[in-house]
Amino acid sequence: MATVALCALTGGKVSFNCNVFSKRLCLQGSLFKSCRLVSTMFKASDMQIELSKQPKEKPDATKLVFGKSFSDHMLTIQWSLEKGWEKPQIKPFQNLSIHPACSALHYSVELFEGLKAYRCVDKKIRMFRPMLNMERFHRGALRACLPPSLGVTRSNYAMIFVIIGPVGPYFATGSFNPVSLLADPRFVRSWKGGVGDNKMGGNYGPTIYVQNEAARDGCQQVLWLYGDNHEVTEVGTMNLFVFWKDKNGEEELVTPPLDGLILPGVTRHSLLDLARKWGEFKVSERKITMGELMTALKENQILEVFGSGTACVVCPVSRILYHGQNHHIPTMENGPKLAKRFLKELTDIQYGRTPSDWMHLVV
Ligand SMILES: Cc1ncc(COP(=O)(O)O)c(C=O)c1O
User: Fold this and answer.
1) Is the N-terminal amide bond of 336 cis, ω within 30° of 0?
2) 71 and 100 housed in the same domain
3) Which of 239, 272, 312 most suits a substitution to test ligand 1, by most atoms within 8 Å of the C-beta?
4) Same domain membership, residue 323 and residue 184
5) Which CATH number fits the domain that encloses residue 79?
6) Residues 8 and 51 in one domain
7) 316 ligand 1 Cβ < 6 A
8) Does 184 lie in the same domain as 138?
9) Who contacts 202 (Cβ-Cβ below 8 Å, separation ≥6)?
């Protein structure tokens, strides 16, 4: 799993860090048009490498906890208004030194990306659709006035860094544990005209409180609602999919549209691509309200509800707590046929069992 982060500070010293991932993508401008500005500023051939003198022991691959182990090295690149991008550096994994006035700390002028590389069946390591992460990163940087938006930047100093670490399977072999959701209209994750469609840190910190409310009410995640008619938007930090029978009794896969409220997930994009390629049922990007969901549930029209994201690929939903009432969602009783098929198709691609141009060779 790689985390790419970019943060800014004004009036203080900043370091910005980047990684193997950025080296391939941002530094090679021909691969990614919107990164060309960046690519003209720093080059992979300028990379400075300092190896760790105290490499850690490799963690036990069977006991990996998500996001807890990190590699011995990280990639950093500094930027300043005066000098532009400096030389990229791979150096031993270390704490960052940040000025107390760093605007990333005070105003959350920062953004991040998370993506996975997979060791495929041929033992080679490949990243899954990294251009989509980089495009999202670039859009976020423009919105945050961070260096990829050179010329309009408001920061004097910035740093981009990439850290990587091994992660185990999200679901232990054979298990496909469904989650329960708190749908509480008192809380919103994003709003029209806001930045909910960007991976900015400020979107995530405030959700911890709501996540705690969900846990207190016996739920594992939050189903984020929006507006007076309680539109369903996302599940925790996943996109939401509903597979149901529409009013004409036809099977339909629905996910909320990218209207600014929704984080455009790489997994969401991929599931839509797969479903449209299969062409076996209707695929829609449109608003869904809690009212519609509850009516469909009463009328036994709901087949599956699941979240999608890089960490788990798909995550079935079995219960929604809404207005103090628990509503059972029959995802597991229905297989879940579609969620399992998505998981298999996507992981077959990710682990190289099905060749695909979605995978980019690293080594
Ligand atoms: C709010 C939110 N929604 C959805 C997703 C899923 O996106 P992806 O499929 O790119 O991991 C994420 C994770 O990045 C997220 O933070």
Assistant:
1) yes
2) yes
3) 239
4) yes
5) 3.30.470.10
6) yes
7) no
8) no
9) 108, 195
- Domain for residue 312, yes or no? yes
Q: Which residues of 17-32 are buried (b: 16+ CB within 10 A; e: fewer)?
A: bbbbbbbbbbbebebb
The residue contributing the CA closest to ligand 1 atom 4 is 238
For ligand 1, say whether the CB of 309 is within 6 Å of any of its atoms: yes
Quote the number of domains for the chain.
Answer: 2
Residues 255, 345, single domain; the answer is yes
Radius of gyration of the chain (CA): 21
Which atom belonging to ligand 1 lies closest to the Cα atom of 115?
11
The residue count for the chain = 363
Spatial distance between the Cα atoms of 207 and 227, rounded to a whole number of angstroms: 17
Please give the residue range of the domain that contains residue 262: 179-350
What is the number of the ligand 1 atom nearest to the C-alpha of 236?
1
Residue 149 placed within a domain: yes
Cα(329) to centroid(ligand 1), Å: 22
| 356 domain residue, yes or no | no
Q: Give, using CA atoms, the residue closest to atom 1 of ligand 1.
A: 237
- Most confident range (mean pLDDT) of 104-108, 174-178, 250-254 is 250-254
The response to whether residue 267 sits with its C-beta less than 6 Å from ligand 1 reads yes
Pair 266, 303 in one domain: yes
- Out of 110, 130, 164, a domain closes at 164
Q: pTM value?
A: 0.90
d(CA 265, ligand 1 centre) in Å? 5
What's the confidence (pLDDT) of residue 43?
82
- CA 41 to mean position of chain CA atoms: 27
Q: Which of 130, 164, 198 is at the close of a domain?
A: 164
Ligand 1 mean position to 48 CA, how many Å? 32
- Residues in contact with 26: Cβ distance below 8 Å, sequence separation at least 6, in sequence order: 18, 32, 35, 38, 39, 134
pLDDT confidence band for 243 (50 / 70 / 90)? very high
173 occurs within a structural domain: no
Ligand 1 atom index nearest CA of 132: 10
Tens of pLDDT, residue by residue over 164-212, are 999 877 766 557 899 999 999 999 999 999 999 999 999 999 999 999 9
